[in-house]
Amino acid sequence: MGKPRLNLRLRAELLRKLEEATRRPGVTKNALIEQALEEYFEPEIRHKLEERLLARLDLFEVRQGEIERDVTLLLETLGQFVLYWLTRTDPIPEGERETAHALGQRRFDFFIDQVVRKVRRGGGIGGQFGLAAAPAEKDSPVEQNENE
């Protein structure tokens, strides 16, 4: 025996939405109404989706808090370094500036190489502060720039 037949009366707006939804291939009015009734009578179907979404949002919230903590730490570290550098470093005499600039450039290049290496490995100084750094992907922008 087939399914029992049912006649419905719907508001014009609701009927328009139903017909619009059934224009997609593989979607029938019958299947759409059956699914809606199942979700209505068995709310756990709907709640499972909501629970998964809420769990995912909770993870986003945790990660956002970690990002905010990391950024705060980085800004404070940078601010302390700049303050220390500006208050403790004596000006370089005029005759030694070119030599100091060349030495500074070599040190900076070494510093950048160290940062790139640590980021690629996924380790680094962040581990000392309990910050988990994710390893960079193989096609990261840093590697792409070096390959060009």
Folded structure, characterized:
- The protein contains 5 helices and no strands.
- Helix 2 (29-41) crosses helix 3.
- The longest helix is centred in the middle third of the chain and has 46 residues, at 43-88.
- Among the domains are: 12-41, no CATH class; 98-148.
- Helices cover 68% and strands 0% of the residues.
- With 148 residues, it is mainly α.
- The 3D shape can be described as rod-shaped
Specify the oligomeric state: single chain
The overall strand count is 0
Q: What is the average per-residue confidence, as pLDDT, rounded to a whole number?
A: 82
Helicity range of the residues?
A: 55-70%
Could you tell me how far the N terminus lies from the C terminus, measured between alpha carbons in angstroms?
Answer: 69 Å
Structural class: mainly alpha
Q: Uncertain segments of ≥5 residues (pLDDT<50)?
A: 133-148
What proportion strand?
under 5%
Secondary-structure element string: HHHHH
Q: Main sheet, how many strands, which sense, barrel?
A: none
Number of helices: 5
> How much is the radius of gyration in Å?
31 Å
Characteristics:
single chain; 148 residues; 5 helices; rod-shaped
Topology diagram in text:
Elements: H1 12-21, H2 29-41, H3 43-88, H4 97-121, H5 141-147
Helix pairs in contact: 2-3
